[in-house]
User: What shape does this take?
Amino acid sequence: MRYQLIGVNHKSAPLEVRERLAIPESKLPDCCRDLNAHPGIEEAMIISTCNRVEMITHTTNGSADLRGFLHNHFRLTAEELDSHLYEFREKEAVRHIFRVASSLDSMVVGEAQILGQVKEAYATARAVGAVRGQLDQLFTRAFAVAKRVRTETAVGSSSVSIASVAVELAKKIFGSLQGKTVFIVGAGKMSELAARHLMAHGCTSIFVSNRTYDRAIGLAQKFNGQAIKFDDLYNTCDRADIVITSTGAPHAIFRREHGEQFLTRRKNKPMFFIDIAVPRDVSPEMAKLDGIFAYDIDDLQQAVTSHVADRRKEAELAEAIITSEVERFEAKLHTLDVVPTIVSLQDHLETIRQAEIDRVRTRMGTLTPEQEMAVEALTRGIINKVMHTPITTLKTAAKEAEATTVIDVVRRLFNLREKDKDSGTRDANKSREVEKQQ
Amino acid sequence: MPILWLRFALACYFVGLTYAFFALRRTSDLFSRIALHAASLGMVFHFVSLVELFLSDHVLWTSVHNGESLLAFLSMTFFMVIYSIYKTTSPGVVVFPVVFFLTFVAAIDEQPVLQTSFIQHKGWLIAHIILIFTGYAALVLSFGASLLYLLQERRLKAKKPSSLISFLPALEVIDQIGYRSLLLGFPFMTLGLITGSMVAMSAYGHIDFADPKILLSLLMWVVYMVMVFTRWNSGWRGRRAAVLATFAFVAAIVAWAANYFSTIHRFAA
Assistant: This one.
C-alpha cells in the first residue's frame, strides 16, 4: 500500500487558492497524464471540484514529490501554496478517500453531489490509463463504502443546500407549493437553481425581471415563464407568493413602502422573499412587516448550518463505518500484496520441476503411464512440502506490518523477478482470483 | 350516571392536556397518536354522558355545568373535524386545555336547574343552546388557530433554524383552520342569538337591551362580525387577527359570565 495524496479543500484553503488550483474539465485528462508521468508515480487520479482539488497517487517507493508537481504545474511558489496543503499517506490516504466519497469531508456533510464528482474523476483518469490496479481497488472500495454510509446512516437525509432549505421554508409558510407563483428578480445562477427547486415542488407559474430585459426573456423561456420589464416590477410583484431576488443593486430595492403596497394588494396574504443578493435587496424595515418573510443569504446559510449539526450526529456513526472499512481494506491489501509473490514462487518452482523432469526423462527412456504418475506425484510432493513453510509464513506476515520485509526476503532468496509497471491490472485480476480461492 | 361518564371522559382528556404541555417543547409522533386516541375515547364517554343527560330530563340542559360540558364536547368535535381534514393535532395545544378545564368544572358535581319560566319553549331553548355553543366552540378553535398562527409567524420571523422542524403546520394551513372555523361559527352564533331573542320575546314580551347579558352578547356578536369582515375584506391575519380573536374570546367569556348578573338569562345557582 503506497498511496499518497495531496490537496486543498474548503477547510484548508481560501477560495483564492482553490481557484488557482482548480482544473477545468477539459484539461483534466492531460493533467492526469502529466501527474502519472511525474517521477515516482505509478498511478494517478485528480479530483477537482469547487470545494477541493486533490491528487491521489500510487507511488513506486511510497514517497513522490507531489508538492514539486503542484509548484511546477500551477506555477505557484511554496510560500503561496504549502501552508494550505494537506498530505496523507497509506492508511490515512485511504481513510481520506473513503471520507471524501462518503461526503463526510464535504462543506455540507452528507451532500450527494460529491460521490458523482469522484466517480467522474475516476472515469476520466481511467480513460487516460492513469488508474490501474491499485487505485482501481481503492476507488471501487470507496464507492462501496459511500453506498454503505448512505444506507446505514441518515447523514444525507435532511435538506442542507440553500435551495432545498428555501423550499422547506416555503413549505412552512404555504403548506403545499402547488399553484404558487415564483418571481425571479435579477437573473443569476443561484436564483435559477432555487427556482428550479421550487418548481420541482409544485410551484406553477414564474415571472422573471432583470435590468437587462433580454436576460429576463432568456431565463423566462427556460421556465416557460413570463418576462417582466424592470420598471413594472413593483406593479407585478404582489402577484408572486415567493420572490427570489439577487440583483446587484447597491441599495435595497424592496423597501417598507413596497411591502405595504404588496400586502394591501394581496389582502395580506403572506409573501416569502429569498434574498440572496449581497448587499441585500430587501430592507430590514420591510422584513419586519407582518406577512413578509424575508430570508437573506446569511439566514439561509444559518439554517443550512443547523441542519448540518443534525447531520453531525449521524456523521459520527458514519466515521465508525469508515474506520472499520479502512481496517478491512488494509487487511485485504496486505493479503493481496503477498499473493503475487506466492504466485511467482509457485511458478518458479514449477518451472524448475518441469525442467528437471524433462532432463531426467531423456536418460530414463519411455516410462509406463504408472511410472509417469509416480514421478509426477513424487516431484510435486517434494515441491509442495518445500513450499509449505514459506507460503504459510507469507500469509501470516500479510496480516502484520512486516509483510513487505518478508516479501522482499522471499523474492531475494528465490530470485523472483520484479514485475514491470504495466502488468498492474493483469496482476490485480489474477490476485482477485487467488483471493477468491483463499 | 351522566357525571360518571363525564369523569371517565375527563380522565381521557387529561392525556390530551399533558400532550398540550409537552407538544410545544418537543414533537413526538407517538405521543400525538396516543393523545388523539385518548381524546377520541374521551369523546365517546362524553357523548354517552350527554345522551343520558338528554334522555333523563330536558330541563337539565340549562344548567351551567351541562352547558360547559356541551361546549367542551362541541370543541372536541371541531378539533376532530380539523384533524380529519388537515391531519394535524397541533390545535390541541389550545383546544385540549380549554376542553379539559370545561369538562373538569362540569364534572365536579351535578347541578339541578330551576329556571322554569322557559319550559313551554323547550324546543327553541334547545335550539338556542346548541346553536350558541357551536358558535362558541368555533370561536375557541379560531382563537386557538390565531394563537398558533402568531407562534408560527414568530418562529419563522425569528429565523431560528432549529424551529424549522416544528410540530406546527404551515402558516397558511393554520390560517385556513382559523378562517374556516370563524366562517362556520358565525351563522351558528347569529342563529343562536336570534333563537335566544325569540325565546326571551315570547317569555317576557320584550327584549331588555339594558340587561348585561344581552348587551354583552350583542357586543360579542359585533366583534365576531368585525373579525369575519376584516378577514374577508382585507385579509387581516397574524397579530391583528389574534388581537381581534382574543377580544372576541374575552367578550364571549364575559357574555357567559353575565349569566350571573342578568335578570332574564339566569341559571339556577
User: Anything to note?
Assistant: Chain A has a mean pLDDT of 85.
